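Posting here for the record, re: iron/sulfur cluster.
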Amino acid sequence: PRPIDELTIWDDAKAMLRKARAEGIQTVHDRLDRQTPHCKFCELGTTCRNCTMGPCRVSEKNPLGVCGADADVIVARNFGRFVTGGAAGHSDHGRDLIEVLEAIVEGETKDYRIVAEDKLRAIAGEVGIQTEGRSTMEVARDVMDCFFADFGSRKKEVSFLARVPQVRKDKWAGLKMTPRGVDREIAEMMHRTHMGCDNDAPNTMIHAARTALADGWGGSMIGTELSDVIFGVPTPKMSTANLGVIKADKVNILVHGHNPVVSEMILAASREPELVNRAKELGATGINVAGLCCTGNELLMRQGIPMAGNHLMTELAIITGAVEAIVVDYQCIMPSLVQISGCYHTKFIDTANKARFTGAIHFDFQPRTAMKQAREIVSIAVEAFAQRDPGRVDIPCEPIEIMTGFSNEAVIAALGGSLDPMVQAIAAGDIRGAVGIVGCNNPKIKQDSMNVKLAEELIKKDILVLVTGCVTTAAGKAGLLVPGAIEKAGPGLQKVCGSLGIPPVLHYGSCVDNARILQLCAALANALKVDISDLPVGASSPEWYSEKAAAIGLYAVASGIYTHLGHPPNILGSKTVTDLAVSGLEDLVGATFFIEPDMVKAADMFDQRIRTKRKALGLSE
Ligand code: NFS
Ligand code: SF4
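Prediction output follows.
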């Protein structure tokens, strides 16, 4: 096995990896060692399993599959389906929020309600729904119908394209890249990649971009906006992060997955006096809910609930031996968590029919019965406290402070009601530009080494950093999410962030909340009357692993945002596809991907790009 020091930069992770080895528990790192070296064809993207004349593997020696498909076609098809998997994940999550809104509108639930009426009305106005003189429920019903329709086939474009600068929309229309309906683009990609359909790699790539745009400006954006409507618009607040948020004297419930529809109810149930009293009867001092991954981000942003860890901390959190229950919904939940829970008293509870885990306690969580089910789940966790073995508990550290809650609404409010001060700070060069660092951990990369390093390098150069998803915890643990972190930033950020009392790295939410960053870019472009690709901005996913991260990267690029990846997707087997991704897209959409494993160099690339864009806008570099 690889030495523990090479696996992660964090002491809490190292302590738990040592405990895992001592207790004979296998982790993601051990399984990676057993899977390497990986299949070279799969790494290059040159395997195809799309029909039973194959499977085929193409190479220089054997350049064509049985049907005649070459490496370009096969790589493009594989990449297209990969991105589509991610778009489907985000967007199906978005749809679940529309279904909760439907349950509210139909009067089927009292457990959920419309918390942010103003936001609902603002969104309705943006997508062309009459709001004046109408009741909230009337407006909500039309918003629901509008968003359900965004998934279908009758629209020429998804509704939130109303936010996109016209020049960008014209560009998409010219390329046949305009996202029409979320499910339509996803289904069409499956169709195109069937044997004997879209056998022109660049054409497949264009549709991949269109599918990704349907995610970013469609499914994800709907998910974010309706989550705000139903659970509240995030506002700045303090919280804490790392494994130290798990408390030895409390019943600990970890929520993991993505959808706040489940985790918000678990949190509410954990505050019910009856359940808290029962926890006390069993010898605990109370019930503690903490987050993992993106549903953790959702609760952190809106409710200030502490963050136990990101992707590679999920197994390790259970290994503290102090977790009574891990409650999951869907996405990024390693099935190994069931086995690891089984090594302790931890109850593993799944809540979605579309994401069941063999060996889990299952709840088919529904809006109508949400609170009742949440109470049952919390009760299972509370009762499990009696089975905890104190001799196996090891919580390796004290939590670290973080600031969270930066929605666009909150940022605009902090700026005094408009984006103008931000535009002025960018014009003056105090904020030279902005980069969103998003995405995951990947056991092939020393955990969070790149996520943290890139953020540190960028803020030194007066480039504001926005973080979402699993980069949040990385930045938080590195001490970058507190106002005091301006010490590590350049003079411009010190001035601007210092005067506002905010960190130089802003927590912008979960991965679907990358839609907030898209919206911000569009608003800045509209304010300056330019295209998004003219802005001094960038995006990065240094340690990405998932199909969803690929979809995010592609919608960022297709929206005109220069995007960095720490390692390439499995496309290097096709020169056509690779060249398109890392240079050819520049001519088409005004941005490309760049692949760079060295974070100092990556930061320099962003710096150069930002200089060029600033100069073109007539600003000092
Ligand atoms: Ni994003 Fe969230 Fe984390 Fe990566 Fe997974 S939790 S949706 S995919 S691993 S950032
Ligand atoms: Fe092979 Fe073509 Fe079938 Fe793919 S679609 S498995 S390349 S025959």
